Amino acid sequence: MPVPNYSTISILAFSPLAGVRRASGTTMTTISEVDERGARFKADSDQLAQLTKQEDPKLRLAFAFRAMDRAPSAHLRDLVPLEMMILHYARTLPAWPILGHAPSLNIITLDWPDGEGYEVRAYLVGTKEPMSPEQLPFFYEQQRESVQPAVAAKMPPVRV
After folding, report:
1. 18 phi and psi, to 5 degrees?
2. 3 with 36: CB under 8 angstroms?
3. Are 105 and 126 in contact (CB under 8 A)?
4. In the structure, how many helices (H) and strands (E) does the chain have?
5. What was the pLDDT predicted at 1?
6. How far from the centroid of its chain's Cα atoms is residue 77's Cα?
7. How confident is the model at residue 77 (pLDDT cuts 50, 70, 90)?
8. pTM for the full model?
9. Host H or E run for residue 122
10. DSSP 54-107
11. How many of the other CB atoms lie within 10 Å of CB of 15?
12. Mean pLDDT for the chain?
């Protein structure tokens, strides 16, 4: 089943410790390419696997967050191809094949350190209007409140 046509597609990444990591968008052409796992998708996947030494898109994304948190400058942090990594991970989510119709698709990732690695959660949210970066702390807190208490205890409070 092809991906529905969206008027806007937002890619949003938020950490309760680092704040808004990225707030950007993409095109339907890119989403269709990701959905079809076309030539560009495969080339990007090969490049990301080589860059991160990880085959799993979720582990690549965790690698990206770790690299961003350890980057010595904002310039280097901005060079991480986060949008591409988020799209590749979003494509693996069980909800991807059943994306619903809405004017806007928001692809949201939340992350926080967890032991030696990072916990990563991704959401595909259809809305009437694109979500703004200012909504991300509230979205995170909403997710934190909706999970089991044992999981919520591992989710740090928003500090930014």
Report:
1. -100, -15
2. no
3. yes
4. 7, 4
5. 66
6. 16
7. very high
8. 0.94
9. strand 117-127
10. --SHHHHHHHHHHHHHH-SSHHHHHTS-HHHHHHHHHTTSTTGGGPPP-SEEEE
11. 23
12. 95
